[in-house]
Design goal:
Shape of chain A: globular
Structural class of chain A: alpha/beta
Low-confidence stretches of chain A: none
Largest sheet of chain A: 9 strands, parallel
Oligomer: homotrimer
Mean pLDDT of chain A: 98
Distance between the termini of chain A: 34 Å
Number of strands of chain A: 28
Chain lengths: 654, 654, 654
């Protein structure tokens, strides 16, 4: 199978989405000049070009794209060629209204924006296949082509009639019989028994509370239908170019797609990453997405989109302060990216994204934004040797979309305790402890890790539970947060409110009640404060260690339990406490941080032989690094430490 | 007519909703064992069993229910048998989409939740009647049957075409002629004159502000249509079992049903009560609902549903701390309940309510929740003698749904001054003063009361006004809050902004303007602070007493007026002030609290001969009770006082 | 052309909307008595009378209106006669559902409120024309008629199919070819190219972000369609009464209508003005609306609606404290009003606006509200000589609806920096500096002004830019706030992010990035604090003056730039700082306040020969006024100053 290496060919890719149909041809030549100036070696073409390529049904206008492909090739710039299927031309919706998605209330999503397609529409799929095939046939042999980019940020949902029909097909495949579906969905409750397949519908508006397994399956179905759309296009281009890798860009930590399943179908895993430049935890969030993406890719990955400056979709959109674009670009490389790209090359003057920055901003060549892009490009060239290298981690954080979906149901113990916030808190604690982490699926082979961390996995299959038990049996250390192992694959609560095997593992005799906390509320524990959640637990007699709650209704009951190498946290400790706890557990398991004595806000990651040290603070800092190293960025040698300016980075070769 | 006594037969009912269709038959036998262990003597079957009983149109599967009825009877547990019409099977909506309700925007409420039926649908009504008749025919003679439970928490609204047609029929019946409707609705304003009945529609989405009388009548109509559904089913079961009482469970203080009208049609008045365990005013709220329900029932009533632990529909769902379930259960008995039941017996493992607690929680028999249920059941057995006894009150609080509906109109002086909050504030003040209160409709005979309290009755009929005047003339003391007597039955503002007879009664010469207060704002009065509202009033010369506003635009004008025994409060005093004021007025009228010198958070109620003393605080407390009493719960004798632990209760017989 | 003078005939109009169809005929005579008592000389009839005039299709019932017209004339009260087309009778929607508007989600707006008409419906337009023609034919010659009032507060939007068809016609007229439309809308982005006119639709619900030029044009179209409705009715009445002026009342600072375009089509410009009596900036807001309306009218204007007391549509509706109704009425006259009217004469007892106050409130004749109305009417009679006189201003604030519409697009740098707030902040600063200002369109002749102020004009046409440049070249002083000159007429961002000519004018070499501020955030500048916004600017070498940012990422960069007489402010200074800055700039340009040494909260305006001095404070104050003046309100002579009570006003003739 083709691989990201087939696109990178020994250098880090640098570039971005290029939408030249917005500009007159003279601008294209100006663009080429600036791209070369900035060291751009890759552009993504065609993401939103359907109506340009097929201005009316069946028409084909490829001349402009021929010109651009040639122009790129002639200037040594590779092309990631996109299928344009994320935004069908207006004529598709006009002629075939059934291609437009409907929300749970029946509202239609029209053209005039983007992503106005139903994943379930046969007509949409046929038209998407035809334009994809036309592109593959015409450009499959073009020397500029380095990668295929399918669609863009798949994320649509449809509750319409054609989706309902496909949902039934999907459910028949999953359950075989209607009885099995009725059992899985628990339709005995609230009189929801289906007597024929025809009465099964998407979770459209109800008077009060959806059936949660119906909603869970609809999320599964939606992810699968989008994936069907994606692989259908992939299969077409693969027929023409079996040697060219294929990707489809994810939105970061996006709930809508089963990321593990999707990644298996891609040659290259790519992601779009837009932390808020004003978020004090922007670096932590970026690192999480990067670690997750690398884990999905099982190696180097592609940063398909980031912003050179502000985005346009927040309430207040902040530019990147001097140095931040470079810092976050290098952070991606440190955490496994072999490609650093932007949306988009030249900032639009028109349309819905004209206030989303580009590598060339409205201020043009002389703008600070472009100057920083240029500097970043130059730095990336200095790091060519990192291309293709890997990152080793002794710790894995478990994540699973199905658990996330099930956990997000409408009526649950607390709407404050959703997975995303909890996941971020745990990853942040490990990041701040200087510990490098992978992500893994709960059924993955965990043999390579010393410590496995489960921030929250509300739903766990039996296979996953056995996997965890086996990991601990084999000598691994397991740390779990609350709301883990509550439900089985069908969102059926396990007897006792938590799987009996897991309770046994952690030393929980009885889980009496969950005590979720209100916003602003915390709970005193011995030595730290807990947030978000607490639990009324009766510990087993043979528990190894407990830390109790102090005061309140849970006074004296265990906030933290350990039975041998299995730890259970029934609350979310405040950041410093969680960091200290995880550092201690890691140390006990023989896992040490990349560098000792890291100052706050400094990140250290080892990729291949290279040590990346990144200062996310606004103050200069000296980082102790034992021994002598060569800094690839400055070309200097540093001994026993490196001085980093605000947002400074060193990439050290021993 | 049959009566709750026919179900209780000398003991307090204890039990809950039982939905055994969720469980395999072996669990049923386990359930019986635990029910007997907990002292359960009543279960409610069939509330959501329609699709189990009639899995396809016209089919009947009653065998499982036969088994359960027999099982219950064989174990001495009575059955409250429900008509399953609150949640039609999916096939009804699939085959008859017109049975699905529409909201004001035209959105359809689908199956997949519950209550997806239009009260106006003839097809729904026919199917509901058929399944009801089948149940009545089959189980009318079963010895386990102790009560009929119609539907569940009637609450749906429909703006669709069939509802529109019935609305017109309802309006014809109310008004006779279209002229009368036009007059009542004030269609002369904003050009809303109806020239034919066909143009009259439900209050569907408008550009700006609905006609408020149209909305008021639509609320009346909706309550009446739901009641038609209810009485149609009642009449069917009554034909088979004239000796078995019938109920339909209310939601507490629910705006959607005219509670006085509904109660008249029921043999047993029952309510579902779910105070938030974290609400510091949960006991006060519970007492209000209990007093209202008792008043609707004109005697003992049934607590149809409460939660043994957390519910699932709040943002954060708190369990009940140790002792609270028992405390609130006994509070219900103290205030007239002859039945203490839960939703539901065994906590679901699947479906939308699996995080709503059960008497047997996910933790099972050994969970604290079940243990507390068991203790409560034991205590209720000790109180058998209270069954059927009554509570005497010298004070009545007036409440009327029509006034509530009219007061909730979109455009009004203040959206902050809605009836529910005001009602709760007044009832709380009386509760905290230790004064036992009934509720009454403003047209009820008030002759048995010494004091009548009107927290807010925006709309008052002429008959109601005459009733109030007669009450005062006959020597009664009347206390009224603001926004009372503003509108007539058609929501027509009475000349002067408040009925002239009432102004005369209270000594108000001119009501110049309402001065509603912003959130966080209060107004200084002589001796207390007012909240929510104030008024620019010119007092009559012959007013008996006034308390003036101090400072601000209303400086010196009366905040409180009294003319003889008629009091008017133009603001809402802060809780302590309102309590002190009402205590003084009651004392002047010769009404004393149940016990003198009650500590804060302690409630005392006399039911029949028994004195209930309840400690809602978390600290132990000693309550002075003059004389010697026997405590039914402990079997001990107490003299001149009783010591209550946290959440402790004593039930004292002289 | 007829003019407001033709209605006023030497006196200020005083009165209000009169909706007598709500009352029995005996009340009409009582109304006449009270009107005469209050000095009412003008009433507006018929605004919502359609269903009374045409109770069924084609019927005509004009007798009641004949009576009222005669009654008014017989009592010396002029009639502003309204076309009743803002609220069609229910039969129109029932018989012709296509006359009902749809929102972007497809929801229909029904009858039962008001303004349930689609501006695009041919059927609506035909019926509106017929009833208008019937009124004009019948009352065109009636001696009571002094003005025509078309519809009411035009404000509806329609996304339905008939609107879509008209939108296409409008766009064809605007663009000529589909190519031109595609270019203007930038449909090359996101694959939005239209291949036929038929695929162009209103901006209905989309998955993600509308095309902003589509939205902008839809706003233009909506304003134009409403104006077509308006002028169609105007043309009908004008045919019958070419000598009678025509108006249609605006909502204040309403975004939905292009106020400059509309004003050109009206003989009289009128506005409805409802500041919140509790708003501490209510007077400032009122002054802004009054200045804008006067500028639209190019002379005297009409206050068509204000409230004598509370309105009913806020969450909490406050009455007017003693004196405020008079104060704000006189403020309107001070700023150019020749008519001071209310909605409505007698407060409704029924319907959606019964809690909106009237000149005669529910409290009736003896209510304070009517007494204050009466006092105001008496004062207006004392000011007859002001009628028709004009106000001179040396400063113009530029405002343009197209810039507002474009600036409000969904995805933009900051949703906090919308035009309305910025406009209010700048006008307030000038008001508090005692400087009288006009408003002007950016393409108006600015020759008569010394200072032109641009709070924010995101979109500027080339003509507008040339106009501004010419103004400065001719010696004028220009002050501009941020986000000005960003986009061209099609919402195409100008190269550099701001028009190059304007950058040159202000001395901006490069506009690197916008740095919008979060809520609660401010930025330190040399000598003041900025709010809402900041910018990363590189100044040109030849800039005359700069004030730098201090601290943060922009430290040392210019917050304020000046090049000769052109000032640019890249942040919004706090109120005191903006006031001081504008006072200084005005003084440098030779513009002085109306009075020197004005105490805070005191307003001074010169209208014709008269000097209005208004105390908006609650404390008495002495205002220095050099020389001797006659106070028209008290009839006294004042020397070198005037003493004003709380809310006091003096109108001084030298």
């Amino acid at each position: 199978m083709p691989h990201l290496n087939d696109s990178t060919r020994g250098r880090l890719l640098f570039g971005g989405d290029y939408n030249p149909e917005q500009w007159p041809e003279e601008t294209w030549h100006e663009d080429i000049r600036l791209m070369k100036d900035a060291g751009v070696n890759s552009v993504t073409l065609g993401v939103f070009s359907w109506s340009k390529l097929e201005p009316e049904p069946g028409a084909r206008e490829f001349g402009w794209l021929d010109t651009l492909m040639d122009l790129m090739h002639g200037n040594g710039i590779g092309v990631v060629l996109a299928t344009p299927t994320a935004s069908p031309p207006p004529w598709l919706g006009r002629l075939h209204p059934q291609t437009l998605p409907r929300d749970a209330d029946g509202h239609v999503e029209h053209w005039g924006g983007r992503q106005h397609f139903s994943h379930s529409s046969a007509v949409y799929r046929r038209h998407a296949a035809e334009i994809t095939e036309a592109l593959a046939a015409r450009y499959g042999g073009h020397p500029a082509l380095t990668m295929w980019h399918i669609n863009n940020e798949y994320c649509t949902v449809d509750h319409g009639d054609e989706a309902a029909a496909r949902f039934r097909v999907w459910l028949r495949r999953r359950y075989g019989t209607l009885d099995a579906l009725n059992t899985a969905w628990g339709t005995a409750f609230w009189s929801q028994h289906h007597d024929t397949w025809d009465s099964v519908i998407p979770p459209r508006r109800v008077h009060y509370l959806h059936n949660p397994t119906q909603v869970l399956d609809f999320r599964r179905f939606t992810s699968d239908m989008l994936l069907e759309c994606c692989t259908a296009e992939r299969d077409i281009v693969r027929r023409y170019t079996p040697h060219i890798p294929v990707t489809s860009n994810f939105m970061p930590l996006w709930i809508g797609q089963d990321g593990w399943r999707w990644a298996e179908e891609e040659d290259v895993v790519s992601v779009d990453l837009y932390p808020d430049p004003r978020d004090p935890l922007g670096a932590q969030y970026g690192a999480l997405v990067q670690d997750l993406t690398r884990s999905q890719a099982r190696g180097p990955w592609m940063l398909m989109e980031q912003a050179a400056g502000p985005v346009n979709w927040r309430g207040v959109n902040h530019p990147k302060p001097r140095g931040l674009n470079r810092l976050w670009s290098l952070q991606a490389v440190a955490r496994g990216a072999d490609a650093v790209c932007y949306f988009q090359w030249r900032q639009s003057r028109q349309g819905a994204e004209k206030f989303h920055s580009g590598m060339v901003s409205h201020a043009g060549e002389q703008g600070r934004t472009f100057q920083e892009v240029k500097r970043t490009g130059a730095d990336l060239r200095r790091l060519a040797e990192v291309t293709g290298t890997r990152i080793a981690a002794d710790i894995a954080i478990l994540h699973d979309w199905h658990a996330w979906w099930a956990g997000e149901q409408q009526a649950r113990p607390s709407r404050r305790a959703g997975l995303e916030g909890v996941l971020r808190a745990w990853h942040r604690a490990l990041w701040e402890a200087g510990l490098t982490t992978d992500f893994a699926h709960p059924e993955h082979d965990l043999g390579g890790y010393r410590v496995v961390v489960v921030p929250q996995l509300y739903l766990l299959t039996d296979a996953a539970i056995e996997n965890l038990l086996g990991f601990v049996r084999a000598g691994g250390t397991l740390v779990s947060g609350f709301l883990t192992g509550v439900a089985d694959e069908d969102d059926r609560v396990r007897p006792g409110g938590m799987d009996a095997r897991l309770r046994e593992l952690f030393g929980i005799r009885v889980l009496h009640e969950w005590w979720p906390l209100e916003a602003g509320e915390s709970t005193e524990c011995d030595g730290f404060r807990g947030t978000l959640w607490s639990e009324e637990i009766e510990a087993a007699d043979d528990v190894t260690e407990t830390v109790p709650y102090r005061g309140g209704e849970l006074d004296g009951l265990p906030a933290l339990l350990r039975r041998d190498r299995a730890w259970y946290l029934s609350t979310l400790p405040e950041p410093d406490a969680l960091r200290a706890l995880l550092a201690r557990i890691a140390a006990d398991a023989g896992v040490r941080p990349v560098l000792d004595g890291l100052p706050p806000a400094v990140e250290a990651v080892r990729r291949g032989e290279l040590l990346f040290v990144l200062n996310h603070g606004r103050e200069p800092v000296t980082v102790p690094v034992p021994g002598r190293h060569h800094d690839l960025l400055t070309g200097t040698t540093v001994t026993d430490g490196v001085r980093l300016d605000r947002y400074g980075v060193a990439v050290l070769r021993p």
